[in-house]
Predict the 3D structure of the following.
Amino acid sequence: MTDSRYLKRTILKEEMFSQFLNETRNLRIYLPPGYNELLSYPVVYCQDGEEFFNFGRIATTANRLILDEGIEPFIIVGVEVNVKVRTQEYAPFGSLFDKYTSAFAEEIIPFIEAKYPVRRSKDERILAGDSLGGSVSLHLALMYPDLFSKVISMSGAFYEESQEIYAQANDLSWLKIWMIVGLQERDFEADTGVYDFVDLNRKTRKLLEDRGAAVTYAEKDGKHQWGFWQNELPDALIHFLNKG
């Protein structure tokens, strides 16, 4: 049974109007146990914010890591997305990709930093995403290297268009990325086709390592679903937040 301490979570909801997207975007904010606005905290920004909280159980996991594993307290920001336009916002070939990435870096980050005591160093900001959320997180890091240097990618949808963009980078020695993919993801049917996610992740890993990025990579038995990712999320968070 889950320890009741892990379930005492502080999760706030915010609404932010985006000029780039011309709409209001919902955000979920997790505050750690013992939260004190006079302190400062590392921050994890999650694509598919609603799913990270509901299916990934990231707030419960964060409580456990902070209370029992000695992880430094951190804040989580879940950026919600309308699934009907998710591919348009997250994929580089999507019609809303430029607007979404601009909104994320130039509106959402300043909005959070004005209201919460999150640290403003790129080493204290972590981007996290699953599938297309993983690939757009990597795109954001490459587009805004002054803001981001750490990425968590779970079964990243690194389509050919994304790989072509990553390949244009010269020096990625500043980038740290944690990647995992399930071995049962070789013929996953997405809304834009059927893809071998293992092959996509292997190729992307090589692209990044060839350009000097620090890649932590694993392949495990698992499918393209939250049942797999939820179990791997603690290791991903520990990788970047363990100060020991």
Observations:
- Residues 97-115 form the longest helix (19 residues).
- DSSP finds nine helices and ten strands in the chain.
- The beta strands are 10-18, 23-31, 43-46, 75-79, 125-130, 150-154, 176-182, 188-190, 193-195, 214-220.
